[in-house]
User: What shape does this take?
Amino acid sequence: MNKQVKITSEAVLDALSKVQEPELHKDLVTLNMIRDLKIDGDRVSFTIVLTTPACPMRGKIEQNARQAVESIPGVGAVEVKMDANVPSDGRARGLLQLPIRNAIAVASGKGGVGKSTVAVNIAVVLAQYGARVGLLDADIYGPNIPTMMGVQQLPPAHDDKLAPAESYGVKIMSIGFLVKPDQPLIWRGPMLHSAIRQFLTDVAWGELDYLIVDLPPGTGDAALSLAQSLPLSGGIIVTLPQQVSLDDARRGLEMFRQLDVPLFGVVENMSYLDLPDGTRMDVFGSGGGERLARESGVPYIGAIPIDPTVRQGGDQGKPVVITHPDSPVSQALKHIAEDIAAKISVAAVQQNDNIIPITMVD
Ligand SMILES: Nc1ncnc2c1ncn2[C@@H]1O[C@H](COP(=O)(O)OP(=O)(O)OP(=O)(O)O)[C@@H](O)[C@H]1O
Ligand SMILES: [Mg+2]
Assistant: This one.
């Protein structure tokens, strides 16, 4: 090592300011992602604080940052720690006193297309990455989340708030916890509105990075109540590839537009079935989700194949991303969760114009 060369924090930050965050299209220093920079002789250590723990580019960003600093003359060892701090979309949930940084609604036009399946599995994926995740079952007519997440009751309430159930690291609230399974759920408009509001305000959610909201099918009151009660970061539309589902999905898209909810995009579920002989069967047609996204001018997020393990997992309360994490269907769900997390980050960073570049002190 050349003892003559003194490594300055300016030099390190200058090198890191050439490293781009690929989703946010800004450099790590401008994004204020570099923390705990320490220089000890020829050793440099720092932490990169990403905007989501579910960042698929994590490894690449770490590698680029390391290489950038290693190429500074005189630098010996470089230690990079990775962390994440999910930004809030800046919407005024503080008024409800909800420390929920981002809220994402999963909707469709049609019933039975896999909304709850998508909501459950993306919630579990995000929690597995280390994010603080809540899952709100806003399907007050046919609550399926308790079954799909394998929990049947709430823990004892503390203070004056209901404690959410917890499963696979996800906090869960559902009307299913509060009524008997065979009890019909008939709601009048105002009751429904207050039920959804209470799910938000009377539940001890704690601080959440992401609240995933599973909506009932259709474009009815529940979505309206939700959008009025909780400013949403964005919505996702789940559809099957076939025309009848697409027509309904289009109505779902329009509903979000009318409610002023940004659209993160379209997910096509049950896209195809991989057969044992290696061929692929388009059970419900193909390409419809992508076409809908294109025609509606919203992003296409991805496709999920048909796999019987999805249904088994749902019925047994063991999400497929837990039981078969490496299967194509779980990989598809994981990519969708990552994509949504990335879109949330981009939206949040765009909303928060308060990103202050790190001040360089020597
Ligand atoms: N990709 C898939 N492969 C196989 N089965 C699936 C897939 N996606 C969903 N399913 C199954 O299809 C059924 C309907 O899915 P799900 O309950 O998630 O739909 P939904 O849109 O939430 O329905 P609802 O409108 O009734 O709320 C469930 O039994 C689920 O396990
Ligand atoms: Mg459902």
Residues 108, 111-117, 139, 142, 144, 217, 269-270, 304, 306-307, 310-311, 314, 329 surround adenosine-5'-triphosphate (ligand 1) (CB under 6 Å). Residues 164 and 205 are 7 Å apart (CA to CA). Confidence is low (pLDDT under 50) at residues 354-362. DSSP finds eleven helices and 15 strands in the chain.
